[in-house]
Amino acid sequence: MRKAGVSIEALVEFVELYRLKTDTRAAQKQLLVEQRDKLEQQKREIEKTLNYLNYKLDNFESHVLNYEIEKLHYKIDEKDQ
Predict the structure, then answer these.
(1) Can you tell me which residues the record assigns to a coiled coil (predicted)?
(2) pLDDT tens-place string over residues 35-79
(3) This prediction's pTM
(4) Which sign, positive or negative, has the C-alpha torsion 60, 62, 67, 69?
(5) What angle do CA 36, 38, 42 make, to 5 degrees?
């Protein structure tokens, strides 16, 4: 389960539930559902960051070019004053 991204704390809790003499399958399943939900949230955050980075890469040339042009105009304006 560690390869599935389950935290150490969750694994410890899972094993503790397993060792109990009572039926803990529902609690174990809930623990796995919670871990899956956490991973889904992390996945969404990574995808959001990746989309932003891809946007920056896709528009890199135009952003850099505009910045350089603005910088050049600023320097020319300073010389005129």
Answers:
(1) 25-56
(2) 999 999 999 999 999 999 999 889 888 877 777 777 777 666 666
(3) 0.60
(4) positive
(5) 115
